[in-house]
Write a sequence for this structure.
């Protein structure tokens, strides 16, 4: 099996890295290129950059910062934010991104997934899912980059994951909204359920606060574990995390 | 040294070009047969679907040019798969430079497809800049068969050729441009050939 992937997630607004709690109250945590280089040096396996306001503002992310990141790192990275067309995805890939993650636009027009998979291959197309727990089930939310625009789509998360992977999404980033930024651990039962439903790699997201949370995600079958706060705030150095996982018998790249 | 990156209107040319810029090389991104034929080294990149890529290669009149190259050539990911005879992806004929076929990876519980992430290499051949145990980054749903051309492999349910070599043609199933220090060593060994 490939090594368990540790994936710092960088929320981007106006070309800067920001971080909020449960999708609100974003504060500036620094320059994109500096963060990208720091995580590469620390041993991150991959990076994800989300332009958190692009989709809600009806625009696509800016390839200019994608190009700046691509120049300085030699590990894979995905970008996300308002990509609504084949040409917008092509601009990201041409700028040096390895994958494009789509979320709200895929919900608006699911055929977008097929169009991107056909032209660029499934391995370039990541489905971002914002999953919200309510009344004992999980529901897909849309436009979560803006508090005013966030809406419940009425789609069950598992149904959407099955549909989207059937259309050609090559990876799923499962973000459990109630866990975002609160550091109480990933939603393990929900992650297990999505891993079982999806034939493609699943990345756990939302809630990481301690090394054992990462272990739980990998034991649940996640191919990668994504986190922001613990890495940005230097609560959990990546080399220490990987050493812990290796001691638990989980293969990591070191 | 001139390095041509074959541009057939698909593929991840951005990150491949940047990887060579790190060696102080300004790659020429081109779909022109004469420019490709006269370059010192040639890269056949590729992200995308095999059918579309082969269609573009034929539409640009490049199939014979690529087959006839005598200088060092490196195919990356889909670019490596195109070197073989046939791909199961859309059931198409490829360039036929290396013998063998490209087949879909089978998904199984605990082994999702695409094969995505850092896998450890076993190195069988010399002079490719890689060492046993190196981790390199893969992102693919199809892979070529094992065979005498295989000089490095990874395990993903079956043996996955990670590097293949036949004469002046070298292929990498993984992404050297996104494989950190190991990828850098591999690209350096290619440039030193």
């Amino acid at each position: 099996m490939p090594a368990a992937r540790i994936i710092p997630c960088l929320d981007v607004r106006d070309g800067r890295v920001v971080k909020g709690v449960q999708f609100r109250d974003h504060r500036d945590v620094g320059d994109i290129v500096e963060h990208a280089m720091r995580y590469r040096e620390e041993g991150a396996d991959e990076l994800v950059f989300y332009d958190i306001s692009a989709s809600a503002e009806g625009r696509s992310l800016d390839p200019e910062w994608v190009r700046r990141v691509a120049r300085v790192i030699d590990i894979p990275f995905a970008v996300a934010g308002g990509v609504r067309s084949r040409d917008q995805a092509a601009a990201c890939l041409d700028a040096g991104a390895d994958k494009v993650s789509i979320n709200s636009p895929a919900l608006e027009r699911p055929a977008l997934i097929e169009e991107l998979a056909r032209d660029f291959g499934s391995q370039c197309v990541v489905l971002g899912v914002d999953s919200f727990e309510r009344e004992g089930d999980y529901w897909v939310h849309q436009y979560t980059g803006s508090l005013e625009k966030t809406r419940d789509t009425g789609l069950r998360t598992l149904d959407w994951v099955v549909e989207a992977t059937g259309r050609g999404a090559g990876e799923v980033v499962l973000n459990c909204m109630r866990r975002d930024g609160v550091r109480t651990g990933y939603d393990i039962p929900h992650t297990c359920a999505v891993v079982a439903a999806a034939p493609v790699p699943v990345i756990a997201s939302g809630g990481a606060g301690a090394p054992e949370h990462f272990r739980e995600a990998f034991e649940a079958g996640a191919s990668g574990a994504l986190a922001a706060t613990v890495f940005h705030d230097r609560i959990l150095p990546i080399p220490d995390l990987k050493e812990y996982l290796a001691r638990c018998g989980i293969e990591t790249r070191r | 040294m001139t390095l041509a990156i074959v541009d057939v209107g698909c593929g991840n040319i951005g990150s491949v070009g940047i990887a060579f810029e790190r060696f102080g090389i300004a790659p020429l991104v081109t779909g022109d047969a004469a420019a490709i034929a006269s370059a010192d080294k040639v890269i056949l990149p590729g992200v995308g679907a095999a059918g579309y890529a082969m269609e573009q290669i034929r539409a640009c009149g490049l199939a014979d040019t690529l087959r006839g190259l005598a200088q060092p050539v490196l195919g990356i990911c889909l670019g490596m798969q195109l070197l073989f005879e046939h791909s199961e992806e859309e059931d198409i004929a490829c360039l036929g430079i290396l013998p063998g076929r490209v087949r879909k990876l089978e998904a199984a519980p605990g082994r999702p497809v695409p094969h995505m992430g850092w896998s450890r290499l076993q190195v069988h051949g010399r002079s490719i800049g890689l060492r046993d145990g190196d981790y390199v980054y893969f992102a693919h749903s199809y892979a070529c068969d094992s065979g005498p051309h295989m000089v490095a492999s990874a395990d993903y349910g079956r043996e996955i050729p990670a590097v293949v070599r036949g004469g002046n043609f070298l292929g990498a199933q993984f992404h050297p441009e996104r494989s950190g220090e190991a990828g850098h060593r591999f690209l350096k060994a290619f440039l030193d050939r």
